[in-house]
Write a structure and sequence with these properties.
The protein is α+β, with helices and mostly antiparallel strands. The strands form two sheets. Strands 5, 6, 7, 8 and 9 form a five-stranded antiparallel β-sheet that branches. α1 packs parallel to α2 and α2 packs antiparallel against α4. The protein is globular. It starts with a helix and ends with a helix. The N terminus is likely disordered. Bound molecules: protoporphyrin IX containing FE (HEM).
């Protein structure tokens, strides 16, 4: 499945090799620790990194030991990559391809976090239980239903193992995934990827999405362990191997930006139920003021419309459930599009939008429930089309000496 060199070169050799190259010392302050109770890239770091390289792999093996080998190698390599080191020795043998591809040599670790998740296809692939794991598939790793308006593309959907690489440097994030894919050799096969970015203003204000609205205001606070336990981390209700982990739902959502740009400011604000510039709920001044869903205007109409995005996402209408949104904007060039809504423009349009990523302890109570309502009546649907999708069980973090997902593969 992989070369001996790929699996064994790793961590030990890397530190020496980078020193030998005379590369600048790594600023440890920008390195996120890998071995921890929870995987990185969910609650930490507190400010979302500015770049994501999101990759989903198929597994090209029927042997469980090969999958275990991949997860072992990826765990070891991730710790090295997050420290800002090359994943293999940088050898000078002119007769061999260099092991680490080298584009991150001398770069700051840039708060790289590597987060792994298992898709339904790890447990059953085309009806086959390839690894004897089918019985261990958690109920919460539910197949996402078809939602009204879904236009999912097979080449942007599903997959067995997901890697979310977040960093403040796009080259660092890409390098990391590229090394992981390489050291897994033929055992994995790239299924789909998505890059994205998130640009927080320097003053620490909430970042804005491509529709120009602040996005992330009403999230559970990642620094508050109680909020995370309540909404994000799997607890004793889940299987042992998932406790301390979380479920990710990812959606590649294309936004008709040229259409949006023709929409009057007042209507843009009605779509979300918030003011564009301040981010405050309609009728209020403070971004963080609680939503008053009962507020009515002089005519008795709700101030936050019945089909406003924030109303439909609010815990008050979703059984009190909160999800942690950790999305990235994407911009992938332009292609010819026929819009789904009046005025049905047909033109070259930006292939741009949101790589929506959310984490929760149970997607049936989280994303599935919330989006079930939204996909039917959200005013935002006039501008958005869901074209890619995935659901993944992200196990807890690994302790030194173990590997991500060990309790799934080795549970008796
Ligand atoms: C392109 C697609 C989307 C855009 C541009 C978008 C944008 C926004 C914005 C601007 C807000 C208000 C500010 C905030 O609280 O962060 C918001 C809130 C929210 N969105 Fe979205 N969103 C999108 C898709 C989704 C999807 C697919 C879901 C599915 C679950 C979702 C769930 C939520 C939730 C739960 C809230 C918080 C509601 C609250 O508690 O007030 N969003 N979104």
């Amino acid at each position: 499945m992989t070369s001996r060199r790929g699996f064994l070169g790793g961590a030990g050799a890397a530190a020496g090799a980078i020193a030998a190259l005379g590369a600048p010392a790594v600023a440890q302050a920008d390195a996120e620790p890998f071995f921890a109770r929870h995987q990185g890239g969910i609650a930490t770091p507190q400010t979302q990194q500015t770049q994501v390289y999101f990759a989903v792999f198929d597994l090209a093996t029927d042997r469980r030991d090969d999958v275990i080998g991949v997860m072992r190698a990826w765990t070891t390599a991730s710790a090295v990559l997050q420290a800002g080191l090359p994943v293999d020795r940088l050898d000078h043998d002119l007769a061999l391809p260099p092991a680490d591809s080298g584009e991150a040599i001398g770069l700051n670790p840039a708060r790289l976090t590597l987060t792994f998740g298992f898709g339904p296809e790890l447990f059953t692939y085309q009806g086959k239980d390839r690894y004897g794991l089918a019985a261990r598939r958690p109920e919460a790793l539910a197949d996402l239903p078809f939602f009204p308006g879904d236009q999912l593309q097979a080449d942007k959907t599903g997959g067995s193992i997901m890697v979310q690489a977040c960093a403040d440097d796009p080259q660092v994030a890409f390098h990391a995934v590229r090394q992981l894919a390489r050291i897994a050799g033929g055992a994995v096969s790239l299924k789909w990827t998505q890059t994205g970015y998130c640009s927080p203003p320097a003053n620490g204000a909430t970042p804005r999405n491509l529709m120009g609205f602040k996005d992330g205001t009403m999230n559970p606070r990642v620094a508050d362990p109680k909020a995370m336990t309540a909404s994000v981390w799997v607890g004793p209700e889940g299987p042992a191997w998932m406790q301390g982990g979380s479920y990710m739902v990812a959606r590649r959502i294309r936004i008709a930006l040229q259409h949006w740009d023709q929409i009057k400011l007042g209507f843009q604000e009605q779509v979300f139920g918030r003011h564009k510039y301040s981010g405050a709920p309609l009728g209020q001044k403070d971004e963080f003021a609680p939503l008053d869903l009962d507020a009515a205007d002089a005519d008795g109409n709700p101030v936050i419309p019945a089909n406003a995005h924030v109303r439909l996402g609010a815990p008050a209408v979703n059984g009190g459930v909160e999800i942690l949104r950790r999305s990235y904007s994407y911009s992938d060039g332009a292609n010819f599009t026929a819009e789904r809504w009046p005025p049905w423009r047909q033109a070259m349009e930006y292939d741009a939008g949101l790589l929506f990523i959310c984490y929760q302890k149970d997607p049936r109570a989280g994303f599935i429930r919330i989006f079930n309502g939204m996909s039917r009546i959200d005013a935002l649907n006039q501008f958005t089309t869901h074209v890619g999708s995935g659901i993944f069980a992200c196990p807890p973090g690994a302790a030194k000496g173990s590997y991500i997902g060990q309790a799934l593969f080795e549970e008796s």
